[in-house]
TrEMBL record:
<dbReference type="GO" id="GO:0046872">
    <property type="term" value="F:metal ion binding"/>
</dbReference>
<dbReference type="Pfam" id="PF21405">
    <property type="entry name" value="AMG1_II"/>
</dbReference>
<dbReference type="Pfam" id="PF00408">
    <property type="entry name" value="PGM_PMM_IV"/>
</dbReference>
<keyword id="KW-0460">Magnesium</keyword>
<comment type="similarity">
    <text>Belongs to the phosphohexose mutase family.</text>
</comment>
<dbReference type="GO" id="GO:0009507">
    <property type="term" value="C:chloroplast"/>
</dbReference>
<dbReference type="Pfam" id="PF21404">
    <property type="entry name" value="AMG1_III"/>
</dbReference>
<dbReference type="GO" id="GO:0005739">
    <property type="term" value="C:mitochondrion"/>
</dbReference>
<dbReference type="InterPro" id="IPR016055">
    <property type="entry name" value="A-D-PHexomutase_a/b/a-I/II/III"/>
</dbReference>
<dbReference type="Pfam" id="PF02878">
    <property type="entry name" value="PGM_PMM_I"/>
</dbReference>
<dbReference type="InterPro" id="IPR049023">
    <property type="entry name" value="AMG1_II"/>
</dbReference>
<protein>
    <recommendedName>
        <fullName>Phosphoacetylglucosamine mutase</fullName>
        <ecNumber>5.4.2.3</ecNumber>
    </recommendedName>
</protein>
<feature type="binding site">
    <location>
        <begin position="387"/>
        <end position="389"/>
    </location>
    <ligand>
        <name>substrate</name>
    </ligand>
</feature>
<dbReference type="GO" id="GO:0006048">
    <property type="term" value="P:UDP-N-acetylglucosamine biosynthetic process"/>
</dbReference>
<feature type="binding site" description="via phosphate group">
    <location>
        <position position="67"/>
    </location>
    <ligand>
        <name>Mg(2+)</name>
    </ligand>
</feature>
<dbReference type="InterPro" id="IPR049022">
    <property type="entry name" value="AMG1_III"/>
</dbReference>
<dbReference type="GO" id="GO:0004610">
    <property type="term" value="F:phosphoacetylglucosamine mutase activity"/>
</dbReference>
Amino acid sequence: MNHQQQSILLDSAARFPPPQGVKFSYGTSGFRAEASILESTVYRVGILAALRSIKTQAVIGLMITASHNHVSDNGVKIADPGGEMLSQQWEPFADSLANASDPEHLLQLILEFVKKENIQFEGGKGAEVLLGRDTRPSGESLLEAAKQGIRSIVGAVAVDMGVVTTPQLHWMVRATNKGEKASEHDYFDQLISSFRCLLDLIPQGAQSSNKEKMIVDAANGVGGLKLEVIKKSIHGLNFEVRNTGKEGVLNDGVGADFVQKEKVTPYGFSTADVGMRCASLDGDADRLVYFTVLPNSSGKIELVDGDKILSLFALFIKEQLSILEEANNKKVNNSYEAHLGVVQTAYANGASTDYLKQAGLEVVLTPTGVKYLHEKAADFDIGVYFEANGHGTILFSSNFLSWLDVRVNELGSTAKGSEQLKAALRLLAVSKLINQAVGDALSGLFLVEAILQHMGWSIHKWNELYNDLPSRQLKVKVVDRTAVVTANAETEVVSPPGIQEAINVLTAKYPRGRCFIRPSGTEDVVRVYAEASRQQAADDLASSVAKLTDQFLGSH
Ligand code: 16G
Ligand code: MG
């Protein structure tokens, strides 16, 4: 790194002094904090993004959002070249940059890292970073800080994509690097045309029990703005968008996180909506859950969570694959046995895992956090992953997609109108509708709607795939949550010693009991999850394990 570059960095860093006494950590969702203390962090992530772009010789994304957090918070995270989360190998560098005390220290860290990673400033393509932000008022000034960070690397270009959902930005990064059309207009186009394609392929005679209007709670966030754009050009779905942000406050008593955790109706919904098919997005539209308002229940809802969305998707894909495989059995030349897998975390309701296994699906568990699920899902030809909280997507391997393309062409000339051709076309349409970069509430919503129409299912029918086991989540404040070390996708505690044995003893007391504890990645607490055949039992198990955690780890 030459002297001119070094002095540019020192000068610009001096304009973004870090707050005193705060320690930042690049967690599962990037850096997140009260927006007023984030400027220096976002500026520094801008530098990191530019360096990452030079290192990978690809376009990188930088998203300013705090998702479902309070409107006064904000955050920043990086999208890697394929649209996935920042490589875990760079997370420690992100931490050290964010926490550097002054410009000299910052420069020192950059110089060391550039050397270690062998980042070459000359000869290659210059850095290019796509920027996005959600609707938070603090987003504009933070975006400016990010631009300054990016531009403090000589030759780096910052491209502002405006107010977008998190998944849109990830999609744009992925599409740009694949050399595909990558504007917001292209995103909408792809979503609308693949949805249309799925509707056109619905078998004759599927009942239209869900043609009636559905309602979306947009969390007063960016998802509502985008749905209103889509609504103007989409046919085949009658929907109303509420909580679009024109009146209410972002994530305040609304949105997927609220609905999933509290299991009550979001603001703007009432008994007038009893029985209707409703969906909730979170603040940056990367989570999706469905629900119905229960009659005479003072705002209680029936939740249809990420596990049920996963089950619906997996079932539909399995059905299409078996239609294609029937053809394989008839000894067509070009056969391919696609490996379909489903990825969940320990939070997945036990009833969903049982259901999926009984349906003949391969189920794998990973630790909590999108990056783990995503990585695992990529091991399959078709990997479907979801967290119970509604974040998830479907990944298609490029091998499988190439095979599918060829198959569609073959069938198009030899078996026009056949069930096999339709199944192949449906799978192709799913691969285009779903956002393969990251979980996307908008594309997820349209895929759910297309599949429900295909099956001729109401939300009630869908919800009856299986009955959730009652569960309870609690959090425990402890002195040091990192003292809890887990294994086997967080289903077992290996340290402190003895605690797992004690949890096992308690769990064994309850029919269908299951319980685990894990340190939160986003809050300074240890989380407890328990489920059992009855609600009271799940509650009791959770509270006794919370007590145990407190005994082993000492509370504040
Ligand atoms: C983050 C994760 C989410 C996970 C949650 C768990 C991403 C993009 N988001 O929001 O997947 O469910 O953290 O939070 O990875 P916790 O560790 O506090 O329980
Ligand atoms: Mg989110």
